[in-house]
Amino acid sequence: MLVRAPALLLPPIVFPLFFYMAFAGGLSAVGGLPGFDYYNYDAFQFVFVLLQSAAFGGVFIGFSIGADFDSGFTRRLFLSAGDRSAVLAGFGLAGLVRSVFVWVVVFAIALATGMKIGGNGVDLAGLVALALVVNLAAFLFAVGMMTRLRTLQAAPAMQLPLFMILMTAPIYVPRDLLQGWIATVSQVNPFTAILESGRSLMAGGPFHVLLAFACAAGLAALLSVFAFRGLRKAEAAG
Amino acid sequence: MSASPTTATFPRQARYLAWRSVIRTARQPIIIVPPLVFPLFLLAINASGLGAATDIPGFPTTSYLAFALAFPFMQGAIFSTNTAGTNVSQDIGSGFFNRLSLTPMSGPSLLVGQLTGVLLIGTLQAVAFLAAGLAAGVHIAAGPLGVLVLFALSLLIAAAFGAIGLFAGLRTGSSEAVQGLFPLMFILLFLSSATMPRNLIAHEWYRTVATINPVSYLIEGLRSLIITGWDPEALALGFGTAAAIFAVALAGATLAMRDRMVRT
Amino acid sequence: MTSRHGIEARSLVREFKNGPRAVDGIDLDVAEGEIYGFLGPNGAGKSTTVHMLTTLLPPTAGSARVGGHDIVSEGPAVRDAIGVALQEAALDLLLSGREHMRLQGGLHGLSKAEIAARGDELLERVGLAEAADRRVGGYSGGMKRRLDLALALVHRPRLLFLDEPTTGLDVQSRAALWDEVARLARNDGVTVFLTTQYLEEADSLADRLGIIDRGRIVAEGTPAELKAEIGRPTVEAIPANGDQVERLEAVLSRFGSPLPATRGAAAVRLADGTEELADVIRGLDGEGIKVADLKLHAPSLDDVFLAKTGRSLEGAGDDAAAEEDTGEHEPATVTA
Fold first, then answer.
1. Do B102 and C56 touch (CB under 8 A)?
2. Contact between residue C239 and residue C290 where contact means Cβ atoms under 8 Å apart
3. Which residues from chain B sit within 8 angstroms of residue A183, using beta carbons?
4. More confident: B173 or A97
5. pTM of the prediction?
6. Is the pLDDT confidence value at B17 over 50?
7. In this predicted complex, what is the ipTM?
């Protein structure tokens, strides 16, 4: 479908690119604040945009499942497939391919516009692996929601929690420069650990990477149970 | 005996269509609540997340909340584009537009009617955003008169963006096409001086884009009343830009209406 | 000159960009107080004709006068004289029936008092008085259609255009709508131009019919005239007593020309039409002939369509839809 309708790739590329430009471009003066000791503001924002697009990329594939439920296509797939989880794995794989493509494009443009890389190949591979786990977790969340709600109308129910989690992490400044209620919320937000670890890999000074992977993988494991139970419910509903 | 078309005057028609627009707005919480809640949520996040930005040398205020308060007004305006455009395109798609075309209704009276609904939401938004800002401790530098001017500018901006929505809805007749504008307007909103004063934007290309972007002048006009007081240049640019956008968009919507209403 | 209640069209044409002629030279004359039926399959040009006559679409060529006014140069006067219920009952699901009345009446220039009185009267007449204050989103298809008709009548038009008004309705709703339309023509003198693809509707409701196919009128007349053109009805009877076949033949032959029949039966083509059936039965009764079976075969409008076009009306719509995209159902997006 992506090969036949390449225009479908446009929004997933445009939005991360736009956020990168708006934050790294518009707010770069924030990188000069006293106490802001990350090596490069462009890279600071790139990591957030990468992980944000990984999360939303996973969820958007859930929209495809919902739209297919509305049209009856998913039911047809379920009827013809021997193992229904293979149907969902297919959606997941498509989402992954699309996400990786988007990351490559955004990375290339960020480099071309002056972003500096602090880490080495291993660090960057770790960052990509972290993004992949986030993508998987988000996809499983979307599967769990869509197999229960079974309509594209439920899209806001998926987007909103994700939005809240992402936006209450240290997006614009490091955690110790946050003020007000966000400072408190970000302390308990699991995405904060993932984001900070990702930024440390980008900078070449890995920090709490295992904790970050544990958070992401733990979330993915919980959400896989959520997803498979949802699949059973969808099968029972026919 | 049928009614005479001469008794169906423009003011009368506009009144009935405005009444319809107001009722429809009031009966659709989904078009009232998100344009109120979402901008306030984003304001809360940005005010807290970017609070440290006021330490940047030359930042015009010590309260990022006061600096950012203009932002929700602009977001609200973007929702107006969506609401107005979607309403008119739904009328076209359902055939209700044909029903209206078969009455003595004039095209301009429909535009006035639709914009009335937009202004109603714009008023609710202005009240909500201002109340939230005041409750959170923002001081309006231009005083009580400044609040009235703030309302006037925000309603003009809402009307301008509503007119853009009407143009898009009448031209395309498609709700999907109108909703497709939303991300573009969002991008336009961010590529401005919404989050940082123009003179403090470090990247030259971004600063140039923000300078060309008319949204910057709209935001700066609103913001000047909140953090500066009376800034004649910012107000002139703000009102002038809003009026120009409104005039162009309304002209576009009028032409699109004429094409859409092919009745003889 | 067309009367204030009539419709007149000469060589009316409507072409769409890069498409076929949806209406290809139509001549029409509809008299005051007449119910004129426009019968044809999907894609024949019915709705496009209605859109032109109601000023929603300018013709590419030709002319028409509706209610005494030219449809091109006197559009507002035409709209003042007509009420229209289009193919889709275009209603605002968020407004109630009464609110629709208020809007429609207000846009037509009625005073508040007139709107209230007329609204109550019409809602009562179409059986929506109790549901008047409910939102239209909760109405059934039949209720929406009735409201649509009521709205078309708010400003007391002299002419009424109904574009496939009973499509999708159940039998009872359809019958109720037919009754109301017939009453409007009979009692109020409203001229009705009605498009339909239903044979039964055309047959029972219309005073005169125009049968349209591929943008042209292929036949016109009263339903009886059109059917008579094709052929007179036949009667076939089987006597209860098999020995009486010859006597049966003799009686039937008094009423028309004998026809070949199945073994043990007699058949005749009636000389004067279906009205003779009662006489046939009286004749058989008078001769003491009991019949085991009696069948009347009358030509239908479908037979008329078949004779004129070589296709059955019921299948013709699928052919037209497959061959052409006339834009018939999307006038709002059409540009001249």
1. yes
2. yes
3. 48
4. B173
5. 0.83
6. yes
7. 0.89
